[in-house]
Every structure is written in structure tokens, then in C-alpha cells.
Write a structure and sequence with these properties.
eight-stranded mixed β-sheet; globular
């Protein structure tokens, strides 16, 4: 039901007559600037060649795909985290388009899978510990692959954006947190693509929607399990301690631009360097390497790895 409503929202949005908001749109050639990329279109694209599949655990969903540039390294690393309401209905494959494109731009891409709701072991705390293990596995991978572990940026889409922001904050969790791990690998910055930024706020929404996945993910509400929300919600974890770029569609029906703007303002107030890059697109355009958001992502990565403020 959650998947059905999620797709229905996209269909309604795609059929609606969109208003133009962006002051200087840069549509791709042969693309209707008013059209939004749908999940059906994105998921129907032929997948790029597989990367090097590497397990970070014993479970069937504990792996990632590593793609390397043709040039010699060591290479900066982009950790890609897929969305899909933290549900097992959706997997990592649609993010491999970004992973493949980033490798052609000189980045090593590490596109990770993790346990999700609806599959064995998904939810609290394994969804979070899996993502942490996947990031930390880069230490072992770098023993045989040309990776620059001093230049890691996490990039996540939708629910994966929440996880990307969370990974940036993970080293700041209490030492006794079951989510932190003994030695969290630090990152240089984080890019959220239509990122869910406030779990306590986002959980409030239509039944059987992506919003309704938050309580099952954490095993309760902010009243019943407040510590879990405090340890996982990006808004509650501010300051994250690293720069953030939030690339967001103004016509996104799943993650509102207003919610992302509120997060950025809160991050700045807390002392973080944070910026919203609003585009006249929908929810899935930001996860594709051939739309206006692709240029915004490349710019954000270059700034993050150069150490420039957002």
C-alpha cells in the first residue's frame, strides 16, 4: 500500500499543470522543461554495467557496488544511498546511473544496499547500522583499491538523503550509542537529493504514504522512543559538523521544498554551513545524471572536496 500511494502521488503530480518557479531554468535539450521525471521513467532506464560488488556483511542486502574512474588514483569517494521510504520494495539499482556517471567525472562511487522495512532484519537498528558498516567498509576496500579516504562525500536521495545526513553526524553520537560503532569514518560533506530532514515532522502525513514509514522504521513515535529520533533525525542532530548541500525540486510531491528550507535555516542557526539549491523539478529529477540537478550535484561535490563553504 505504501508503494502504491507513493507512485500514485507521482502520477498525479506528473499530470498536473505545473507552475514555473525557478528564476533561471536550464532545461536539457529535447526535454520539456515543464515535465517531471517519473519513477516509471527512471526505473525503466537500462542499467549501466555493474560495478565491483563487495560485501560488507554476511546478509544478502549487505553489499555495495564500487565504480572507479579510468584514471589513476587515489580517487575521492562518493557514497550513494538510495531512497524508497526505507522499504524493501525499492533497491539501490536506480542510483547506479549516478554512480556510473560520477565515475566518468573522476570520482570513485560506492553505491550501497542495506536492510529495509519489509525484509528480514530491516528497521531499527539494522537499517542504520548497515549504512554505517557500509561506509566504514571503505577502510578495508582502500587496502586494495585506489581510494582517498580523506575525501569522502555522502549523497542520498529521499530516505537515502536522511541516511546520508545521518552518516555525517554519526561520529558525534555518544560513544555508547548502538548506532555509532567503534570508529566511524568521517566524511568531508553531504549532499541531500530531495532529502528527508526531520523524522518527527515527516512522520505526519497521509496513511500508507512514505510518511507512514517513519514509525515502523524507528519502532515507535517521538513520545514512545524519543532517543531513537534524537539519534537518527538530521534536524535533531544539528549541528552535523560538516557542510551540507540540499538539492531540492520545488515541485516535489513527496518531500516538500519548505521542509528542506527549514532544515537549512536551522543548520545555519546551529553553526553549520548549509545551502539549499532549489530547482524547478520533481522528486526523481534530482536522482538522474542528465537533468538540471546533475550540474548542481557536480558543483556541490567540487565545493565539498575543495573545502569551500556551500
Amino acid at each position: 500500500m505504501r508503494k502504491t500511494l507513493w507512485l500514485a502521488l507521482l502520477a498525479i503530480s506528473a499530470c498536473a499543470s505545473p507552475a514555473r518557479h525557478h528564476s533561471d531554468p536550464v532545461p536539457m535539450a529535447n526535454k520539456d522543461p515543464a515535465a517531471m521525471l517519473t519513477w516509471t521513467e527512471l526505473s525503466a532506464r537500462p542499467l549501466p554495467p555493474s560495478g565491483l560488488r563487495i560485501a560488507y556483511g554476511d546478509g544478502p542486502e549487505q553489499f555495495g557496488e564500487l565504480r572507479l574512474p579510468a584514471s589513476t588514483g587515489p580517487h575521492p569517494v562518493v557514497v550513494l544511498i538510495h531512497g524508497g521510504c526505507w522499504l524493501s520494495d525499492f533497491d539501490y539499482r536506480y542510483m547506479t546511473h549516478l554512480g556510473d556517471a560520477l565515475a566518468t567525472q573522476g570520482y570513485a562511487s560506492w553505491t550501497i544496499e542495506y536492510r529495509r522495512l519489509g525484509a528480514s532484519g530491516g528497521g531499527w537498528p539494522q537499517t542504520f547500522t548497515d549504512v554505517g558498516l557500509a561506509l566504514d567498509a571503505l577502510r578495508d576496500i582502500a587496502a586494495t583499491q585506489p581510494l582517498d579516504l580523506g575525501r569522502i562525500v555522502t549523497v542520498g536521495h529521499s530516505a537515502g538523503g536522511q541516511l546520508a545526513l545521518w552518516l555525517a553526524a554519526r561520529p558525534r553520537l555518544a560513544a555508547d550509542s548502538e548506532l555509532r560503532g567503534p570508529a566511524p569514518l568521517p566524511v568531508r560533506g553531504v549532499v541531500g537529493l530531495a532529502a528527508i530532514t526531520d523524522l518527527a515532522e515527516y512522520r505526519i502525513g497521509p496513511p500508507d504514504s512514505c510518511h507512514a514509514s517513519v514509525d515502523p522504521l524507528l519502532g515507535g513515535t517521538p513520545d514512545t522512543v524519543p532517543l531513537r529520533y534524537a539519534q537518527t533525525s538530521p534536524r535533531a542532530l544539528l549541528p552535523l559538523g560538516v557542510p551540507q548541500w540540499l538539492i531540492q525540486g520545488q515541485r516535489d510531491p513527496i518531500v516538500s521544498a519548505d521542509s528542506v528550507e527549514r532544515f537549512v535555516q536551522a543548520a545555519r542557526h546551529a553553526g553549520d554551513r548549509s545551502q539549499t539549491r532549489l530547482l524547478d523539478v520533481g522528486h526523481f529529477d534530482v536522482a538522474a545524471p542528465d537533468h538540471e540537478a546533475w550540474a548542481a550535484l557536480q558543483s556541490a561535490l567540487a565545493e565539498a572536496l575543495a573545502g569551500a563553504p556551500p
